[in-house]
Amino acid sequence: MIKIKEATTKKGIKKFVKFPFRLYKNNSYWVPPIIKDEADSFDKAINPVFEHADARFFLAYQNDKIVGRVAAIINWTEVNGQKIKKMRFGWFDMIDDLEVTKALLNKVNEIGGKNNLEFIEGPVGFSNMDKVGILTKGYEELSTMITWYNYPYYKDHLEKLGFVKSQNFIETYFYFKDVEITKYKRYAEIVKKRYELEPLNFSSTKEIMPYVEEMFALFNTSYEKLPSFVPISDKQITYFKEKFISFINPEYIKFIIDKNEKLITFSITMPSFAKAMQKANGKLFPTGFLHLLKAKKYSKSVVFFLIGVLPEYQKKGVTAIVFDEFFKTYKEKGIIKTISTPELEENKDIQLIWKNFKPVVYKKRSTYKKAIDY
User: Fold this and answer.
1) d(Cα 307, Cα 319) in Å, to the nearest integer?
2) How many whole angstroms separate alpha carbon 271 and alpha carbon 292?
3) Which long-range contacts does 272-280 make (Cβ < 8 Å, 24+ apart)?
4) Across the chain, what does the average pLDDT equal?
5) What is the pLDDT, as a whole number, of residue 176?
6) What pLDDT was estimated at residue 179?
7) CA distance 113 to 299
8) 262 touches 197 (CB < 8 A)
């Protein structure tokens, strides 16, 4: 018999966070989170997303053993502001037992029904800054620290339970050696002169901090037309500023400003921490932080995390300036490979950015949805 229990205490949340460590033990593709960081992100006293979102965390038990987990999430900005009656689910993991999956999702359905919502969709997080989607291709590829990994049966379970694909994402990589650097350098100079633009490069986190609020405001503006986008609040910006910016190499953050010093483009890449996170195995101490510091300094792969372009500058070639600046940094650092984060298949603008880099689509993932059963 399967029992669903809500995790409401710190001890319960820790069990929720640690379940995948057992499920994916000895799996060479899964990248574990830092346990404390993940638990803190579920703490209403720490994460400002809870000002406009609710979340409940459930564990499935079979014979007194944890066999699955799911977070049931409502983003009220999405529901009330955007009028999208979505019941979200995320942090979704389970053994290969359809009845376990069914019991977990029935609980999500129940909460959605009580809140008069129309459909369930996931796996997704609280907002667009969180992980997204079930892996549907690329099960034998190393995950990243900003994506979920899962076994092939996740997809099968959802489809057997009547869920259908909602949003589809691709992930790509390309090798630095395949990029025609001189072409981008020449084009970057033309675009800079035409629109009177200037790149900003950084050598310290302190130099970046004055621009962070403007950067996230640009992020909201850049993506607001995508159907799944939920804007980031001012308090979330402060939270991400403190949590992430100091973690990223300052030289891997590039800004473009206009003649009035207005930010018109930003881009963030970061070293690949995947192997370092595997070695840390969920803990920064006693040695986990050393693996991360080593990756930060010596990793030869980078993950393309975020890019934002002011709408009036989109399709005007300003990304050529961004890449020209990145190429200079990558050459100096000996970077070999660039990996993209999940991108919506329908977002053709972002895919156009990569078209000349000989990108390889090596992973696909999707969110799945189903009407709430009343």
Assistant:
1) 9
2) 10
3) 272/144, 272/299, 272/301, 272/302, 272/303, 272/339, 273/145, 273/299, 274/31, 274/142, 274/143, 274/144, 274/145, 275/142, 277/31, 277/32, 277/33, 277/34, 277/145, 278/30, 278/31, 278/32, 280/32, 280/34
4) 94
5) 87
6) 85
7) 47
8) no
Instruction: Determine the 3-state secondary structure of 97 from DSSP.
Output: coil
The encoded tokens of residue 207 equal 């130099």
> Measured between alpha carbons, how far is 211 from 73 in angstroms, rounded to an integer?
31
The closest alpha carbon to 299, from 340, 253, 333, 250, belongs to 333
* Predicted TM-score of the model (pTM): 0.94
Quote the percentage of the chain above a pLDDT of 70.
Answer: 99
Distances (CA, A) of 127 to 48, 61, 185, 231: 12, 28, 36, 8
Task: Assign 3-state DSSP to the chain and report helix, strand, coil percentages, each to 5.
Answer: 40, 25, 30
Strands 164-175 and 263-271: unpaired
Two tokens at 359? 């990108």
- Bridging pattern class, strands 134-137 and 337-340: unpaired
What is the per-residue pLDDT across 64-73, written as a single tens digit (0 to 9) for each? 999 999 999 9
Buried b (16+ CB within 10 A) or exposed e, 119-136: bbbbbbbbbbbbbbbbbb
pLDDT in tens, 185-210: 899 999 999 999 999 999 999 999 99
284-313: pLDDT as tens digits: 999 999 999 999 999 999 999 989 999 999
pLDDT for position 13: 98
Name all domains of the chain by residue range, CATH numbers in brackets: 2-171+367-371 (3.40.630.30), 174-364 (3.40.630.30)
- 196: number of Cβ within 10 Å: 10
Between CA 282 and CA 146 the distance in angstroms is: 14
Q: What is the C-alpha to C-alpha distance for residues 306 and 342, in angstroms, rounded to an integer?
A: 10
Neighbours of 337 (CB within 10 A): 16
Highest mean pLDDT among 179-183, 245-249, 317-321: 317-321
Integer CA distances (angstroms), 162 to 34, 195, 206, in order? 34, 51, 50
- Give the mean pLDDT of 35-53: 96
Q: Which residue has the higher pLDDT, 358 or 370?
A: 370
Cα–Cα distance, 221 to 257 (Å, whole number):
16
Q: Is the pLDDT of residue 349 over 80?
A: no
Q: Read off the amino acid at residue 228.
A: S
